[in-house]
Amino acid sequence: MNAFTEKVNKIDRRDAKLGMAHFYVAFIGLFLGGMAGLLQTLVRSGQFTLPAGIGYYQLLTLHGVVLALVMTTFFIMGFQFMAVSRTAGTLTNKQRKTAWVGFWLMTIGTVMAAVMILLSEASVLYTFYAPLQAHALFYVGLTLVIVGSWTGGGAIIMAYVGWRKKHPGQPSPLLTFMALVNTLMWIVATIGVASTVLFQLLPWSLGLVERVDVAISRTLFWYFGHPLVYFWLLPAYMAWYVIVPKIIGGKIFSDSLARLSFILFLLFSIPVGLHHQLVEPGIDPAWKFLQVILTFMVIVPSLMTAFSLFATFETFGRSQGATGLFGWLKKLPWGDARFLIPFIGMLSFIPGGAGGIINASNQMNQVVHNTIWVTGHFHLTVATAVILTFFGISYWLIPHLTGRILTKAMNKLAILQGILWAIGMTFMSGAMHAAGLLGAPRRSAFSEYGGAAQAAEWIPYQIAQAVGGSILFIAIILVIYIFINLAFFAPKGEEEFPVGEAANTAEKAPMILENWKLWLGIVVLLIAFAYTIPFIDLIENAPIGSKGYKLW
Ligand code: HEM
Ligand SMILES: [Cu+2]
User: Measured in whole angstroms, how far is the alpha carbon of residue 502 from the centre of its chain?
Assistant: First the structure.
């Protein structure tokens, strides 16, 4: 590599600062949320009671909000800015300023929401379902987080448009394309949650209106809540499709296939929220059925992804002389944390995805609905597949941004960290799945339910969850230690920002994949098709609504 490309491949210092600001917040959130998670498992084991008047729901709200809403959003925005800066070029001053405005809006909003939770004014869980009613400042805080993410999203859109103007007729760089798709999906999805917060929950908690329509509020929440999980997942897919191939020394299986799968996620992740409301009265089963069918469409790009990734691994192994059915597995760089940790994430997505198909199936959903099985499911998907991939990204991206390197010793520690996480999650999530099948409810502190025999069956699994939670907390301490090392103390040097190339460089991605009028048009049509009549039904048959409740 010559000096010129070296220089081009390094992220500009001003952009690096923007990235690091996001990662500081994300890792502080990880630590606080992880501590809450540990305490939850201890409470649920029956061996521990919370001190100082902390409520279980207060703790659980903190855990859900800080990890699922805040830590993920900050990490993702930071990573996407860096991916765009690396592949479409340094942000312009205007773009960077916009991104900073977004960062500060999100940070102020986060602090407001967190303070309200800590003051015990907002123990409404991260789904903030009405008729539970939080302090208005909690809703204002969440609104600022969303508006901030739109502002940051605006910077990504500007960077994309700028690149396209300078390179007419050319497909955009793959990572930039992917960051753009995720941004567009996020903006369309968050319109739902912003609507319920601004038009329903906020006026209601301010006392401007007395009652709220619960079913409409939940439907708007889940219009957002399902694509939210794809907002978490697609950045992990960016790493799996584009970064991991480069780390192992291989090639991206197909650039066009990767783009097509992202477009399919854009189309099919939004008009499916009713699969979270399968037991909700007031929505005609026909529409639930339709949205379940649309949900299953997402299996197509998921399997395309699995196929591409393993094709990359096998092709690489065989190029290194591997023979036999599985000989290529031996050629993969198992000692490299940047590969191993996201790889464990990919593996956990296999049972995670299978569980998702169960949850989305009407009949099986009746068995697992509101049990702790569901919690087990999303700790496999977001808290393992996605988060391990984020750790894997951090282990090269943080030093890249701070001008340091991941030393051999830190790499070893990182591997230990990833393996501990996987073991802890296997205990915790496995026990959650099992207890859920035995009927144990989610979102519940310890109870013997008046000595009921069924509740006694859950206790061994709750103890296993606490064992898993404790192992996970050790892994959190390790990841924070490594983060601090990479941010402040590791030796100076150049850590690579790996970006893969397609196996077939002659293949030019079809320009129709960048026709946003077309794709966003289809998105709008699908949403209108899936949601218009259910919404008309909900409005026409609206009950008088509910007053607010504070049950804590
Ligand atoms: C130290 C690691 C972790 C531990 C020990 C842990 C533990 C737990 C436990 C025990 C619950 C369920 C409590 C209940 O339903 O009563 C829970 C819920 C939850 N966790 Fe975690 N967790 C961890 C990491 C994560 C991560 C990394 C994320 C997200 C990225 C996450 C997201 C959630 C969410 C969204 C809930 C649901 C909250 C609700 O039902 O309102 N957790 N966690
Ligand atoms: Cu969903």
Answer: 26
Show the low-confidence residues of the chain (pLDDT under 70).
Answer: 1-8
**φ, ψ (nearest 5 deg) of residue 167:** -130, 65
List Cα–Cα distances, 416 to 34, 143, 335, 474, in angstroms.
Answer: 18, 38, 11, 11
Nearest CA to ligand 1 atom 7: 37
Q: What is the pLDDT of residues 186-203, one digit of tens each?
A: 999 999 999 999 999 999
Structure tokens at 338: 């940047």
Q: Residues 22-35, buried b or exposed e (16+ Cβ, 10 A)? A: bbebbbbbbbbbbb
Nearest-angstrom CA–CA distance, 54 and 65: 16
Q: Report the distance separating Cα 367 and Cα 33, nearest Å.
A: 29
What is the distance in A from the centroid of ligand 2 to the CA of 295? Answer: 8
The pLDDT value given to residue 8: 47
At residue 322, the pLDDT reads 85
CA angle (520, 523, 524) in 5-degree steps = 90
Domains and CATH numbers, the chain: 10-540 (1.20.210.10)
Question: Which residues are known catalytic residues?
Answer: 226, 230, 377-379, 442-443
Atom of ligand 1 at shortest range from CA of 232: 30
CA–CA gap between residue 122 and residue 57 (Å, rounded): 9
Is the pTM higher than 0.85? The answer reads yes
* d(C-alpha 400, C-alpha 394), whole Å: 9
Q: Which long-range contacts (CB under 8 A, 24 or more apart) does 192-195 make?
A: 192/220, 192/221, 192/222, 192/223, 192/224, 192/273, 193/146, 193/220, 193/221, 193/223, 193/224, 193/225, 194/143, 194/146, 194/147, 195/220
Q: Would you state the pLDDT for residue 259? A: 95
Angle between helical axes of 516-540 and 285-297 (0-180°, round to 10):
160
- 269 alpha carbon to ligand 1 midpoint, in Å? 23
Nearest CA-CA partner of 352 in 393, 326, 385, 319:
385
User: What is the Å distance from ligand 1's center to 303 Cα?
Assistant: 27
What was the pLDDT predicted at 3?
Answer: 40
11, 401 in Cβ contact below 8 A? Answer: yes
CB burial readout 92-110, b (16+ within 10 A) else e:
eeebbebbbbbbebbbebb
* Contacts of range 517-524, beta carbons closer than 8 Å, 24 or more positions apart: 519/263, 519/266, 519/267, 520/184, 520/188, 522/267, 523/188, 523/266, 523/267, 523/270
